[in-house]
Each structure stands twice: as C-alpha cells, then as structure tokens.
Amino acid sequence: MIEINDVSKNFAGIKLMNLTIPDGKIIGFLGPNGAGKSTTIKMMTGILPLDAGTIKLNGFDIEKEPIQAKQHIGYVPDQPDMFLRLKGIDYLNFIGDIFEVPETTRKERIEQLTTQFNIYEALQDYIQTYSHGMRQKIIVTGVLLHDPDIWILDEPLTGLDPKSAYMLKEMMREHAAKGKTVFFSSHGLEVVEQLCDEVAIIKNGELIFYGGLAEMRKQFQTNQSLEQVFLELTSDE
Questions:
Q1: pLDDT by residue for the chain (237 residues), tens digit each?
Q2: Is 110 helix (H, G, I), strand (E, B) or coil?
Q3: How many beta carbons lie within 10 A of that of residue 131, not counting itself?
Q4: Which residues pair with 2 in a beta bridge?
Q5: Could you give the C-alpha distances from 198 to 29, 157, 204, 224, in angstroms and in order?
Q6: CB-based burial of residue 71 (10 Å sphere; 0-12 exposed, 13-18 middle, 19+ buried)?
Q7: N or C: fewer beta carbons within 10 Å in the chain?
Q8: Which residues are CB-contacts of 20 (< 8 A; sequence separation ≥ 6)?
Q9: How far is CA 28 from the centre of its chain?
Q10: Which residues pair with 109 in a beta bridge?
C-alpha cells in the first residue's frame, strides 16, 4: 500500500497531495509536462525530501524509515542512463547484493528476465554501449530481480520494443493479480486505459482526480475515452 498524506513540495508547486493506493491495483499516474509527476515519484522513492507531509510504503515512512521502506519498492526512473561504466551483469549483481538476493535465486532470475528481454547476450558488455531500449531493459530487470511488493515506474515503456513492452505489461498484470501494487506514470493514454484499474491525474501540482475509468465517466457524465477526458481536465482553456 502507498499512503501519501498532506505532501507538498514548494519548488514543484505540489500542494497538500493526499492519495492512498491499495494493494492489488495497477495505477496510472497522469498529468501534463511539468505537472509534478516525476517530482512526486522522486519523493515517493526517497530521492527528494518532502517539504511537508508523510509518505508510507507498506506502512514504512520513506523519510523516518528509509531502509525498510525502500526494501519494499522497485523503481524505474524516467531516464535509464545510470551506472554506465558497469557491465550489465555487474549492475545486476550489485542490485542483488543490495537487496540480499540469494545467489541461486539471483542467477535464475537474471537468466530468465534477460532472456525474456533479449539482452542476455549483452550482459558482459558495458551499459554505456547499450541502446536506450537496452538500458531500460537492464534497469527493469534490476527492479524485478528482488521481487519487491511495490513497483514505482516512471515512463517504463519508453524505448521498449513492442515485444518487450507487451511482456512488461503482462508482468504488471501478474504482479497486481498477486495482491501487490504497480504505480506508473505514462503519456500513453491508450495503454493506461487498457491496463490500469484506476488513474490519478495531477495538474499544476494538485491531484484533480483519482478513481476508476467508470467512476470518471460517471462523475463527468461522459462516455468519452480517457484521452478526451484527460485533455478536458488538464486544459488551461
């Protein structure tokens, strides 16, 4: 479960955000560029401090209990250009060491996931030689390696080829079906409409809607697509 209570961040204009995300759901996090999506995600993962409020991940406060909280999450950033001087296999072993993944389990998961994402043969290469899509795949593999309860993904499908994007979406569905949580931001509204149980929409740092698509259509008395409703809600006209 993710609990965001009275959270604000002055430089991003985020004002008293409140959002509770239950287990077993896929949540799409939507908003125009500059609305505060990535800032919110960075506060959720402990990268940025909160100016006010609290964020709890499976009951652990991200600021007061950061180690315990981070043990429950896997995070894919919007830019996968990290640890470029490491080989792919060294990066995955580094992640495995941090999260204390047993050696046998680690080896099996690395082989399975990198084979599925078609990067197994590149594990001995340096990440700086990878394409953007390959970098995205190695970061996603690292997230899945320790099987965290909560996935927090910032534009996770960007740069993935259609087959890999399909596999990741299926993994997201399977993760939620196990009673766990997937929270991801995306500009792909059709994907969100097909995949998500609920959506959270942010505009100018404020949460303007949270709920299911049926609830959204009922509230705004429309049968329009998510894309059409989103554009109307976030328009400055």
A1: 999 999 999 888 888 899 999 999 999 999 888 888 999 999 999 999 999 999 999 999 999 999 999 999 999 998 888 899 999 999 999 999 999 999 999 999 999 999 999 999 999 999 999 998 899 999 999 999 999 999 999 988 887 888 888 988 999 999 999 999 999 998 888 888 889 999 999 988 899 899 988 888 777 777 777 877 777 777 764
A2: helix
A3: 11
A4: 21, 57
A5: 9, 18, 20, 16
A6: middle
A7: C
A8: 1, 2, 3, 4
A9: 9
A10: none
Q: Report the run of H or E that residue 94 belongs to, with start and end.
A: helix 88-98
**CA-wise closest residue to 31 among 19, 22, 49:** 19
Nearest-angstrom CA–CA distance, 154 and 79? 9
Nearest Cα to 55, choosing from 122, 113, 106, 5?
5
Instruction: Give Cα 205 distance to the centre of its chain.
Output: 18
| Predicted TM-score of the model (pTM) | 0.89
The domains of the chain, with CATH numbers, are: 1-72+152-237 (3.40.50.300), 83-147 (no CATH)
What whole-number distance in Å separates Cα of residue 72 and Cα of residue 58?
7
